[in-house]
From TrEMBL:
UniProt key word Ribosomal protein: no
Localization per Swiss-Prot or TrEMBL: Cytoplasm
Protein name, entry field: glycine--tRNA ligase
Signal peptide region: none
Native source organism of the sequence: Ramalina farinacea
Residue ranges occupied by any Aminoacyl-transfer RNA synthetases class-II family profile domain in the UniProt entry: 171-545
Lineage, highest ranks first: Eukaryota, Fungi, Dikarya, Ascomycota, Pezizomycotina
Amino acid sequence: MTTKTGKPLDQKSLDAILKRRLFYTPAFEVYNGVAGLYDYGPPGCTLQANITDTWRKHFVLEEDMLEVDCTMLTPAEVLKTSGHVDKFADWMCKDPKSGDIFRADHLVEEVLEARLTGNKKARGEEVVVDEAKEAKKKRKTKDTGAIKLEDAVVKEYEETLARIDNYDGAELGQLITKFEIKNPVTGGDVLPPVAFNLMFQTSIGPSSNLAGYLRPETAQGQFLTFQKLLEFNQQAMPFASACIGKSFRNEISPRQGLLRVREFLMAEIEHYVDPEGGKKHPRFSEVRHVKLGLLDRKVQLSGSTQLTYMTMGEAVDASIVDSETLGYFVVRIYLFLVRIGADPQKIRFRQHMANEMAHYAADCWDAELLTSYGWIECVGCADRSAYDLSVHAKKTGAPLCVRETRKEPLKIEEWALDLDKKKFGPTFKKDSKAVEAALEALTQDVREKLSLDLANTGKAEIQVTGLASGDSTVEIGKDLISIEKRTRVEHVREYTPNVIEPAFGIGRILYSVIEHVYWSREGAEARGVLSFPPPVAPTKVLLVPLSTHPDFKPLVQRLGHKLRQLEISNRVDDSSASIGKRYSRNDELGTPLGVTVDFQSVKDHTFTLRDRDTTKQVRADEQTICKAIESLVKGQKTWADIQHELPEFTQQDVD
Ligand SMILES: Nc1ncnc2c1ncn2[C@@H]1O[C@H](COP(=O)(O)OP(=O)(O)OP(=O)(O)O)[C@@H](O)[C@H]1O
């Protein structure tokens, strides 16, 4: 990974900055901490708040979404219906001798990568070892040494790694056997992978009767508000709900800092769309021209990771992306990531392979950001079809659907059943309900056939389940039923909307963006800078008096007060350190702007405004400076605009 200067990212220095400046820190550290739990410090908190604030503006405000705040505690029944109780699991394998536990796909990945490194060493190729990354590993992978691999084996390993997210438990077990994968620390055998459910279980209330879970995503709560939101939206479709809140997953092996944790902030959107008419989006024309790096299913199947750059219009027209609505959100996600500071060159969209998606999903694209840990999934964008609303409606009987008055009434010709219910009871006794249900469930084709049977033979045979005597064929005479073709006029159309779901992991995004905006300023000693865009930077302005001279103090206080009135966060650094040192301390916090108060300020109330990235300065009166700051932190102007508008200030101006 390189930074914007083209130099390799120095992860060790970046880590030191994040620790020193308290962006985030392991939770409960004095008790030796718990893997996968982190606390955010002051700049981390503000950065997170600014990212979610931008998210609200970019999605909720811009798209008129309906924001909800659903509970994290969720009854088990809800997650049973959604499929999470049975299927929300990762594959885990255990070394029975040492007791070490591995996430099966991570184990295969770790061992194959180590062998490929060993192969490079044996061939005398350069091997770049990232010391900071190595130091962070909880467990040291045993050095496989310099062992040459045959070209065919290298190809097989690389293809396996390219598809590592797509294997199920049995396939991972086969890979472990085929590649003779062992515990990388002890060399011991591992048992075949078993499913491990990732949800934290709990019970709700004092009686412990109501089983519950901490939610693993915000989605289910949102689906269950669907009917109320549709009503709130005056039955108008399409619409979207949105929710920002914590989710919990009992990850088998939390790792890579904020990238895989057990408690994290999610921001999710559930966009409800009519499945008829190709899932068009009314604003697709606004995003059609945007070019993105796509890694589609076909390319991955060939074992390649080569990106195809194309516009979203081209991708939807060629059916690479399933629908306009899905494509619209993929572009909106991209624009959001760029808006908060992600480097466009380090963003790609990877399509899920067919076996990687949930069985009900129509298509799914992940926004992945390139980091020193490789490409990391930060946002998932899935078309979940009508699955969630349908299963909850079926389980509860709630009408989780849309009822729309048709513009033109629809005439439907259909085979209608008439039952003589008075005779049903005496004929079928306690089986009559089951027989009735079986008749009502008959398809149109079967009804047509039975009407012929009744006409020809005077009786019809149907299969009935749940009879007192078990499942069996039942004979029904024409004195009990009649089946005839009728025309029905339908004025109301009822359908279950499909759901397009962009799901953002805020912690992963926050960390990846930090890597994207990090670079080192050249000088006697390299100094780290975090070039956050002003709207997301934790602190916007640094106020620095030239020295501790008492005349500067009231001016600094006045400026601070003015900026606070404009709701612009600022910090004063009136320490005795040199101006350069004070600025570089704040470069590490990503503070985009600095105002210096000097002797000229005392004379004429003008101030210099400094840009973090270029270190260029302009000089103007207090009101003009505050206005410039306001337009920069709101993202309305860039530093280039300000430089164009205001006179540049150089050191010679003082000398
Ligand atoms: N353990 C985690 N720690 C931090 N963020 C996470 C974690 N699991 C998921 N996320 C975030 O939530 C988003 C949506 O969740 P989703 O269920 O699609 O993830 P996932 O496919 O299960 O992730 P992975 O395959 O990496 O475990 C992800 O794109 C990611 O940003």
